Amino acid sequence: MRFTIAIDGPAAAGKGTISKGVSAHFGFAHLDTGLLYRAVGRRTLDGEAAEAAALDLKPEDLERDDLRTAHVAQAASKVAVIPEVRAALVDFQRNFARRDGGAVLDGRDIGTVICPEAEVKLYVTATPEVRAERRYLELAGKGSDVSREQVLADVKERDARDMERAQAPLIPAKDANLVDTSELSIDDALAAAIAIVQSRLPQNG
Ligand code: CDP
C-alpha cells in the first residue's frame, strides 16, 4: 500500500512526537526531513558550500549526534532558503514518501511542495511561547546552557525565516487539518492525529 502522511508546522510544535507516534501506530516508515536540512547546515558550519553539501548528503551525515543543537537549527534554516539546496533534497523525500507500506514525513513544505498529493496532511502548530518552553525543556534536559529568552528569540527568528522565504515557505496546505497543540498533552495531540489518519485509511472508504 502507498499512503503518505505529510506533517508540517513551525519549530517545536510537536511534529516530531506526533510523527513518531503516528508512524509507530500504523506501522509506517518515518522521515524527519528537518534532519536533512540540519545535516546540510552542519556541513556548512564545517566550512563546506551549502549546495555541494546537499548534493553529496550521505546516510552517515544524518546520524551525527550534534544535529539537534540550537546552533545547527539556525544553520539549517539559513541553508533552507537556498533554492538549489531544496531542489537537491526533493527526490530523496519523494521516493521515501511513495515507498510501499506507508510513510510519514514531517517538515515545513511536505504537504505544499514535496507531497501535494499526500493522502493526509496535518499542520501542527502552537503559540511561540508554548513552543519555546517545550524546546527550552528539551535543550536544558540535554545539558544545553540556554535561557528561556534565548530559545524564544531563536524560535521566532527561525519562524520568520521559514515563513517569509520565497521558495517553499512554511504555510498550511489548503487541504491540511490544523492541530493546535498549545493546550493539548502529548497523548491528546497524538490521539487527535491518529483519529484524523484513521478516518482516511482506504478501509474507511
Ligand atoms: O525540530 P525543529 O522543528 O526545531 O526543526 P527541524 O524540523 O529539524 O528543521 C530545522 C530547519 O530546517 C527549519 O527551521 C527549516 O528552516 C528547515 N526545514 C525546511 O526548510 N524544510 C523542511 N521540510 C524541514 C526543515
Please give a structural write-up.
With 205 residues, the chain is α/β, with parallel strands linked by helices. It has helices at 15-26, 34-45, 50-55, 70-79, 83-97, 110-114, 128-141, 148-164, 186-200; strands at 4-8, 29-32, 103-107, 120-125, 177-180. Helix 1 packs across helix 9 (186-200) and helix 2 (34-45) crosses helix 4. It starts with a strand and ends in a 5-residue tail after the last helix.
Short description:
The protein is α/β, with parallel strands linked by helices and 205 residues long. The protein has helices at residues 15-26, 34-45, 50-55, 70-79, 83-97, 110-114, 128-141, 148-164, 186-200, and strands at residues 4-8, 29-32, 103-107, 120-125, 177-180. The chain contains nine helices and five strands; from the N terminus they run βαβααααβαβααβα.
Strand runs, count: 5
How far apart lie the N and C ends?
15 Å
Instruction: Give the DSSP E fraction (strand runs of 2 or more residues).
Output: 5-15%
Number of helices: 9
Helix content: 40-55%
* Overall 3D form: globular
Write the layout of secondary structure elements.
Layout: E1 4-8, H1 15-26, E2 29-32, H2 34-45, H3 50-55, H4 70-79, H5 83-97, E3 103-107, H6 110-114, E4 120-125, H7 128-141, H8 148-164, E5 177-180, H9 186-200
Helix pairs in contact: 1-9, 2-4, 4-8, 7-8
The structure holds cytidine-5'-diphosphate.
